[in-house]
């Protein structure tokens, strides 16, 4: 029979008067002593479970970033090798000495078109120019490099770098991150110098490379509140799963994760350069959520 308000009041008065049996007091004390450890144990188990989940997420993020860094490094290596192979074809066919020669232009154009058609997911635009900066090109769809001022400037810088490659002691040029219209698709310009058998500069072979394969990989990895992105060594966005609010080339140095990496000691950053890394960008990041704040524009 459940206690009524009157019986509880009577019990309370008896407690105050000291008329309750000592056994009841002992029973109450035992109950309190037994419940308190259970509560503490329950809280400890919850804390341990939470810590384990956090550690598991950190391990998954580390593995994911390393995997992406290796994929990007392979992507960079493969496209560079493809471009060098195309330069070798120009050399073997005798077209490398003067790609802007009107007699050689149809053959050069045919080679460029075949190259672009065989790499539809990577090479958007490919051009071969001579010492004067004139030449021929091939592209995917209706893409026109000269109509995009950012791409055009990157190609100009590529030509100057290739022209001075011997003095600068460089073998190739890679531009800063670019955002292609209309959807801010991530891309960059890569170029290698053309030289004759006497190692004299004869022109440039340059390409506009799409990062769509990398972007799809980032989008697949950005799940369950996790945001995966790539920035270069200067803190600029190379690729982000949200190309609308995070435009390639925009400054991301105010991002806490990017700031944390950039704040590492120089000795540690030099050590990290020997690990598998994102050659295209410099840093891969996996953040457990990110504010959708617009970061810059083209």
Describe the structure.
- The protein is α+β, with helices and mostly antiparallel strands and 298 residues long.
- It folds into 2 domains: 150 residues, 2-Layer Sandwich (Beta-Lactamase); 74 residues, no CATH class.
- The strands form 2 sheets. Strands 1, 2, 3, 4, 5 and 6 form a 6-stranded antiparallel sheet that branches. A 3-stranded antiparallel sheet has the order 8-7-9, sandwiched between helices.
- Helix 2 runs antiparallel to helix 6.
- The longest helix has 71 residues.
- The protein is rod-shaped and about 115 Å long.
- The C terminus is likely disordered.
Total of domains: 2
Low-confidence runs (pLDDT<50, min 5 residues)? 270-298
Fourth-tier CATH superfamily name of the largest domain: PAS domain
CATH architecture of the largest domain: 2-Layer Sandwich
CATH topology of the largest domain: Beta-Lactamase
**Largest beta-sheet characterization:** 6 strands, antiparallel
Assess the beta-strand content as a share of residues: 15-25%
CATH C-level label of the largest domain:
Alpha Beta
**Principal-axis shape:** rod-shaped
Helix amount: 40-55%
Please report the total strand number as a whole number: 9
């Amino acid at each position: 029979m459940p206690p009524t308000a009157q019986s509880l009041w009577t019990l309370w008065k008896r407690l105050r008067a000291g008329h309750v049996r000592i056994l009841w007091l002992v029973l109450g004390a035992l109950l309190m002593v037994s419940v308190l450890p259970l509560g503490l144990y329950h809280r400890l188990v919850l804390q341990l479970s939470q810590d384990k989940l956090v550690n598991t997420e950190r391990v998954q993020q580390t593995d994911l970033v390393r995997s992406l860094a290796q994929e990007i490094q392979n992507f960079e290596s493969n496209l560079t090798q493809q471009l060098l192979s195309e330069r070798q074809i120009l050399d073997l066919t005798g077209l490398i000495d003067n790609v802007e020669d009107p007699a050689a232009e149809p053959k050069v154009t045919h080679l460029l078109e075949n190259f672009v058609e065989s790499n539809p997911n990577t090479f958007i635009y490919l051009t071969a120019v001579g010492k004067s900066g004139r030449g021929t090109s091939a592209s995917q769809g209706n893409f026109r490099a000269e109509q995009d001022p950012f791409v055009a400037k990157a190609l100009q810088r590529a030509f100057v770098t290739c022209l001075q490659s011997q003095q600068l002691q460089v073998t190739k040029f890679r531009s800063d991150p670019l955002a292609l219209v209309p959807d801010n698709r991530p891309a960059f310009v890569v170029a290698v110098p053309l030289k004759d058998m006497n190692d004299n500069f004869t022109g440039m072979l340059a390409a506009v490379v799409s990062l769509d394969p990398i972007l799809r990989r980032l989008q697949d990895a950005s799940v369950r509140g996790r945001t995966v992105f790539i920035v270069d060594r200067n803190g600029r966005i190379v690729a982000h799963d949200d190309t609308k609010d995070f435009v390639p080339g925009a400054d991301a140095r105010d991002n806490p994760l990017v700031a944390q990496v950039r704040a590492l000691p120089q000795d540690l950053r030099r050590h990290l350069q020997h690990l598998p890394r994102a050659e295209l960008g410099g840093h891969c990041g996996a953040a457990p959520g990110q504010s959708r704040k617009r970061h810059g524009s083209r």
